[in-house]
Each structure stands twice: as C-alpha cells, then as structure tokens.
Amino acid sequence: MGFLFEEKEDRNGKYAEITGYEGRIRHLLIPKMVENEAGLILPVRVIGSHAFDGREDLCSVELPETVHTLRSFSFFNCVHLSHIRLFDSIEEYYDGSFRQCRSLQEIDVHLLREGRFQILRDILGDSDRQILLHLTMEKGECALLFPGYVDKVRENTMARQIHDTIEGCGYSYRQTVGRSQIDFRLYDKHFQRATYDTKEAAVLIALCRLRYPMELLDWAKEEYLHFLKEEGEFSISFLLEEGEEEWIRYYLSLEILSKEACEKALSLLWKQERPELTALFLAYQEKHFPKKKEEMFFDISDL
C-alpha cells in the first residue's frame, strides 16, 4: 500500500504526478519526492485530477512546497476532510479541487513569498462554509475566520428570470482576499454585520484578530474588545460548548470577562466536570472579583 503516481516531464525535467493512494489513511502527508521503478528520485509537483475524489477516510491533508498544481477535483467530496496544510507554491488550482469537502474547517498556509494570495482566494471560493485560515509569513502569523454563507438561486419560469441571493456575510469577507494582498481594514469593517448575521463566528473573528493583530488598527481593536466584553456570557458559553480550550485561555488572558460571565462559566464547568478549566476561572474570579472570606462567591447550591 502507498502512493500511486505517474511519471511526467516538462521543460524543467521529470517529475511525479500523484494519482491516488492504495489503502486507507486518515492523515495524508504527500511526500516531496518519490522513487520510480528504475530507482530515479522524482519531485512531486502535481496532484492529479480526481486523485482523492470521494475518499471518506481522509481527515487531514498536508502538501509539500514542491507541489505547484492541483488538478480538477483532486480532493473533491472528501466528506471528513477537516484540515489542510499547504504552501503558496501552488500556482495552478483547477476547478473543484476542494469542493464539497463539507467538514473542512481549518487551512494552514505557509507563505514563502510576498503577494502570493491567489491560492487563498481559490480555496475560499470553493467552499461556502465557515473556514479558519491560519497564515505563516515572514512578517508574522495571522489567523482570519471566514463565516459561511448561502447562495440561493430562485428561478422565475414565467418571466424567464433567475434571481441570485446571497445570505450571510461570508461572501463579503471572502472578497477581502485579493490576488496580491489581504485588505485587513475592509475585513475589520465587516465585523458589525457579522455580529448580527452569526454571533458565534463573530466571537472567533474577534479573538483571532486580537491574538494575531496583523495590520489591526486601534478602532478595530477597540470594537473587538468591546464586543467580547459586552457579550461575555454568550461568548464564553459558546466556547465551552465547542470545547475551544485554547481560545478560552486566551480570552481569560485579555482580562475583560465580567463577573456574570465568570459565574456562567463556572456553572457550566461544574456540570461538565472539567477541573483544570474550573481552577483557571476560580483563579480569575479571585483576582478580579475578590470577596470577603465569609462570603462565598460561587455557591454550588445555586446549581
């Protein structure tokens, strides 16, 4: 069992095009090099059309910097694929490479050169679902959440008209990614709409921008902090329900959680029996909302 590939050649020499994988595999790590029958080492440059189409076993995919082409429908309809890691070396992204991967949630991209964002546009354009994009580049790290959206097409047969309506702010957020740059200011300007369209996504948008504040202006920072402070009970309940422990710890580090939000968190954590997080919130409570010794701040009998 292992990778299937075809030997190809272009003006740069011989290379391998991956055409599939024999056997089941959850975490697919595409190699930089493969060896042909003659013992020749070939760089892997292309993922072939339909190479992993419809695979139900794939949960994550990692592509090396040698890959420059993803042919059409190469990972189409991989229903359990949730995480992709790749480089900006991909210059050709054919139609539907990651389309219908309805579990896709997170994409890590290593940007080796400035102004190479086309691959981000292509992947985001292939999915209308919520996606967390984590970028690693020379000037630092960046995390951006792109909410989902619904593209509704309604046909008026009598009038011979087709009406296309987009619901949700996810499409507008995607338009902030250009071929050569990301418009961070425009991205931040969409936040007010996100708080109305999808408050859960707004929580993650705010946390991402505050934790990785690339080109974050003061007005946007204040808006994100204000939202997280005012919506503390909702935000912390959402994060606990989703099991987002890393984001919960960061939220606490901001030191903006209200007394009521802290009480809400402790109430939920007691029911979930999560002692480590409970200890963190108790410490936060003691630091920010100290009580007299004879008073009990969090009364278990209230549960």
Automatic annotation (TrEMBL):
<dbReference type="InterPro" id="IPR026906">
    <property type="entry name" value="LRR_5"/>
</dbReference>
<dbReference type="InterPro" id="IPR032675">
    <property type="entry name" value="LRR_dom_sf"/>
</dbReference>
<protein>
    <recommendedName>
        <fullName>Leucine rich repeat-containing protein</fullName>
    </recommendedName>
</protein>
<dbReference type="Pfam" id="PF13306">
    <property type="entry name" value="LRR_5"/>
</dbReference>
